[in-house]
Amino acid sequence: MFQTSFLLRNPHVQTLFATFFRKDKLKKVVEEAFTLPDGDFVECVWQNEKPKDHRPIVVLFHGLAGSVNSPYIIGLMNALEKQGFASVLMHFRGCGKKENLKPRAYHSGETGDAKVFIEHLQITYPNNPLHTVGFSIGGNMLLKLLAEWGSDTPLHSAVSVSAPLRLDICADTIEKGFARVYQNYLLTPLKATLLQKYKKFEMEKYIGRDEEEIKSLKTIRAFDDAYIAPIFGFNSSQDYYNKCSARQYLKDIKTKTLIIHAKDDPFMTEEIIPSEEELSDSVRLELSEHGGHVGFVAGTFREPVYWLDERILEFLGYKSKIK
């Protein structure tokens, strides 16, 4: 179980340290655009190169407004390579370098793109064991997808980190206190990406909001009401949250799954934490007192230890050698 020093226990220190002070880089990547059934695409990034042997493949899903440049993605990809894994990040639509071809983007419960990409990997690399790791909303999406697959899963194992298992509670929590800093940090790129779509599509026709209305949005919930709900056919943000929060689906998961969560996650409250009765026999919940949101930094300020990478590797079946 995760433990850290007294000086690193603050949830905001955990969250911000892992986001802004981790300086790892990817030495070499292979980028590809994966075409989706609706004619759009997602941008996928392989660490180093695509596998030419039977090594395990780990598929990564980033958090809200994340990308291959997110420190937690870079750190884990480097750690996986050291242990002999191939890894690939699937960007959600609109999170890569290129503009997408459709007015829609992605959300916490939209599993279709991930499903077809993983099934493509299963066909392309039939002898390579497949694993997945999802962070934050990528973790919520992953858990929902695992439940949809049930016993027909193509995956050997899955890890979900800091997932907002009750989206409504998270949307409310992030509007209060210091958490509003995180909300503004996330909302800025979301609005910018959406405003870019107005230059290419008749977005006002699709969602009933003009550009000025989008610019004036102040909360994640307001963004979800203005864009996510109408573009994906939900009645409202609350309807979206009710249908896409992964907590209600955990009992249906048949893939070996680890959920890593900190009680002090500043993006949400302890209300989102499921009981043991809500978990299937395939799901293990590891709940720590500290860790923040996608933080889990042990060691010291001068010599941090990124425990998350070590725990994920251990769960995948490989004892970490990371120093």
UniProtKB/TrEMBL annotation:
Which parts pass through the membrane? none
| Organism lineage | Bacteria, Pseudomonadati, Campylobacterota, Epsilonproteobacteria, Campylobacterales
Q: Per its UniProt record, what SUPFAM superfamilies does this chain match?
A: alpha/beta-Hydrolases
One Gene Ontology molecular-function label: monoacylglycerol lipase activity
Q: Which Pfam family is one of this chain's hits?
A: Abhydrolase_1
Per UniProt, the keywords (alphabetical) are: Hydrolase, Kinase, Transferase
Q: Where is the active site?
A: 136 (charge relay system), 265 (charge relay system), 293 (charge relay system)
Provide the protein name: Hydrolase, alpha/beta fold family functionally coupled to Phosphoribulokinase
Query: InterPro entries of this UniProt entry?
Result: AB_hydrolase_1 (IPR000073), AB_hydrolase_4_sf (IPR050960), AB_hydrolase_fold (IPR029058), ABHD4 (IPR012020)
Domain of life where this protein originates: Bacteria
Task: State the similarity comment.
Answer: Belongs to the AB hydrolase superfamily. AB hydrolase 4 family.
Q: Where is the AB hydrolase-1 domain?
A: 56-297
